Amino acid sequence: MRTPSGHKVYAMAAEYPSAGALYEAAKRVRDAGFRRWDVYSPFPIHGMDAAMGLGKSWLSGWVLFGGVSGLLTAALVEFGPSSFLYPLDVHGKPTNFMTVPAFFPIMFELTVLFGAFAAFFAMLIMNGLPRWYHPMFNWERFTRATNDGFFLMIEARDPRFTETGVRDLLQQSGGQHITIVHED
Amino acid sequence: MDAAPPAPEVIGGGGAASVDRPLARVPLVLNKRNFSWLTERISGVVENPAPRWWWVTFTITASVATFGLFCLGYQISTGVGTWGLNHPVGWAWDITNFVFWIGIGHAGTLISAILFLLRQKWRTSINRSAEAMTLFAVICAAIFPGVHVGRVWMAWYLAPLPNNYGIWPNFRSPLVWDVFAVSTYFTVSVLFWYTGLIPDLATLRDRTTSKIRKFLFGIFACGWRGSNRNWRHYEMAYLLLAGLSTPLVLSVHSVVSFDFATSILPTWHTTIFPPYFVAGAIFGGFAMVLTLLIPARAMFKLHDIITPQHIDKMAKIILLTGSFVAYAYTMEFFVAWYSGNSYERFAFWNRVFGPYWWYWWVGMLFCNCLSPQLFWFRWCRRNIFVVYFVCMCVNAGMWFERFIIIVGGLHRDFLPSAWGMFYPTWVDIWTYIGTLGIFTSLFLLFIRFLPMIAMSEVKTAVPEADVHYASPNGQHPVAAHRKEQR
Question: In this structure, is residue B169 part of a structural domain?
C-alpha cells in the first residue's frame, strides 16, 4: 500500500490521552481480531498484556536453561580439576565425594550468573533488539512514547487492515492525531 | 510499612497528606506531578549545564581519586611493605576496606531486587542511584583483594585456570568462592542496572537535540520504543533478574564472611557470621544511599520524587538492620562467655578493654548500636539533619566494625609472644581515602550523564499509571494537562 505521494505505508497509528484510554482501545482492537498491531507507552501498563491478548512471556524458559547450564558448568569446572586432573591435598583434608558441599557456593554463583545472562540476552533477542531503526520513529509525535504519550498502531500488513475501517476503529476508541506512518 | 502516617506535616516537599481522609496513602510522588513533569525534572539533571557545585565537588573528589590511584601505583611498584601490615596483623585496612565497600553495595541490590519482589513501589525513586552506588562500591572493593596479594600480575591465579605446574585453584577454599561471588555479583548488578536503564536511555535519546548525544543514547538504548510486546518480555526479564539477585545478594556477604568464619581464630570462627554480615551490609549500605541521595535531592530539587516518606522508610530499614547487628554483637559476647573457651573469652574482653577499646566503644557501640535507635522516633526520621547524622555515624561505625573484626582478631595471637599492633602508613590511609574519591567521582559522573531516577519505573508509581484511574472531578489530569499545552 502506498500513499498518493508515493510513500510505502507501514501502519496507521493514533495517540491516546491516558493509560486507561489506551487500555480500553487495546481491548477493542484485540476483539476486532487484528494480529499485527502494537501499543506504545512510557512505562509498562499493568494488565495490558491481557488487553492485547498476549499470554505469559516464556523468557523464563531461557533463564531456566541458563541456570541449569551454569550449574553444570560449575560442576564440570570443580569436579574436573579437583577430582580427576589434580586432586589437591590441603592440610590432609579429604577430597572424596563427601566434600561436595564445599563446591556448592561456586555452583550457586554460576547458576545465578548464567541465568542472569540468559535473562538479559533473551530479553534483547525476543524483543528483536537492538534495532536502531523502526518506521514508528518517522512520526514526529512518537518521541513522546518515551515521555508521556500513549500510542496504538495497526500495521498495514494485517489481513484485516483497511484504511477506512482502521481509521474508524481508532476514532471510535478515542484515538487522537490519527495518522498514516510511512515505512521509508 | 506502606501505610501512610496520619499526621499531615511533611518536610521539604509540600503538604500532600489529605486531612479529610486520614488513612489515605501518602502519594509516592508529591504535588500530583504528571508524567511529563517527571521526565522533564529527571532528564533535566542530565541535560542542563552542570551546576557550579558539581564542578567544585568533582574537582575535589577527582583529585583525591587521582592521589589514591598514585598510592596504588606506588604500592604496586614498591611492594606491600608500603602498607603497615606485618606479623601478626597480616590483614588490616586492605581487607577492612574490601568488606566495607562490598557491604555498601548490598543496599543497592536490596532496593532493586528484594523490594521489587516485595512490591514496594517506593523503591522506584531510589533504585537507579542505589544500583549505581552498588557498582561503584564493588569497583572500590575489588581494588583491595586484587592489590593486597602483592604481585598483582599474578592475580590470574584467582581464576579457574591451571598454573604452569598444572595445579588448579582449590575450589574448596572460601577465598576462591569469594572471587566467584564478587565477580558474579558485579556482573549481575551491571546487567540488572543496564536492563533498567534501556527505557530511560530511550527517553533521553528522544529528547536530546545534540547529535552526539542522540547517537550515543541511541546506541545504548538499543532502539527501545516502549512497545508493549517488548515490555512483556522486559518485565519478565526484570522479574527474573530480581529473583536471581535476591539470593545472590544474600550469598555474597555470606561468602565474604566465610573468609573469616572457616578459620580457627577466636572472634572469626563463628556460625553467626553469614547473617550478621548480611544484616551489617544492608545496614551500612542504606546509610550510604541516604548519604548520597539527601544532598542530590536538595541540589537537583527532587523533593517531589524522593519524598520524606522515602527517607522515613529507609530510616526504618536502618533501624531494623541496625537492631539485627546489635543483636549479633550481643550474641557474640554471650557465646564467648557461654562457650567457656578461654581464648574466645579473652578475645571479647580484649575487644572492649584492649588496646583498640575506643574503636569498640565509639564504632560498634555508639555508631552502630545506639545511634540508629533514634529512628524509633518519627521526629528523628523526618528531620534531615538527624537522619544525616545517623547515616554518617553508621558509615563510620561499619568501617570500625570491620576493622575490629579483622585487626582485633589478629593482633592478639594465641601466644602472648606473638602479640603486636597495627599502625597504618600514609599509603594505607590515602589508598582508603582515594577509594572514597573514586566512589564519589564515579557517582558524580553518573548523575551527570545518566538518569539518576528510573523514569519508566517511577511513572508506574503515579496514580495515573493505573488503567482504572479516574480523577475525583472526572477529568483526566493528563488530558487536562495536554489541553493546557495546546
Answer: yes
Distance between CA A176 and CA B53 in Å, rounded? 44
Question: Of A60, A127, A136, A143, which to mutate for an interface test with B (greatest number of B Cβ within 10 Å)?
Answer: A127
Residue B18 maps to a domain = no
The total domain count for chain B is 1
Looking up cell 549481575, which residue turns up? B188
What is the domain-level CATH number for residue B325? 1.20.1630.10
The CA-atom distances, in angstroms, between B352 and each of A45, B369, B406, B408 are 56, 14, 15, 10
The closest of A168, A171, A167 to A11, measured between CA atoms, is A167
How many whole angstroms separate alpha carbon A171 and alpha carbon A124? 33
Does any domain span residue B423? yes
Q: What does the pLDDT read at residue B471?
A: 57
| 3-class state of residue A155 by DSSP | strand
Task: Give every CB contact of residue B181 below 8 A, 6+ residues apart in sequence.
Answer: A105, A109, B251, B252, B255, B256
Q: Give dist(CA B451, CA B467) in Å, integer.
A: 26
B456 belongs to a structural domain: yes
Confirm whether the ipTM is greater than 0.85. yes
Q: Supply the pLDDT for residue B5.
A: 43
Binned average pLDDT, 10 residues per bin, chain B of 486 residues: 42 44 73 86 88 93 96 92 88 92 90 89 91 94 88 86 87 91 94 94 90 92 91 94 93 92 90 92 93 91 89 94 94 93 92 92 93 94 94 94 92 88 93 95 94 91 83 50 46
* Residue A43 to residue B456, Cβ atoms within 8 A: yes
Q: Do A132 and B222 touch (CB under 8 A)?
A: yes
Cβ contact A106:B177 at 8 Å:
yes
What does DSSP assign to residue A13?
Answer: E
Using a CB-CB distance cutoff of 8 angstroms, which residues of chain B are in contact with residue A42? 35, 39, 199, 203, 226, 455-456, 459
**Predicted pLDDT at B20:** 53
**Residues spanned by the domain of B75:** 30-460
**pLDDT above 80: residue A149:** yes
Its pTM stands at: 0.89
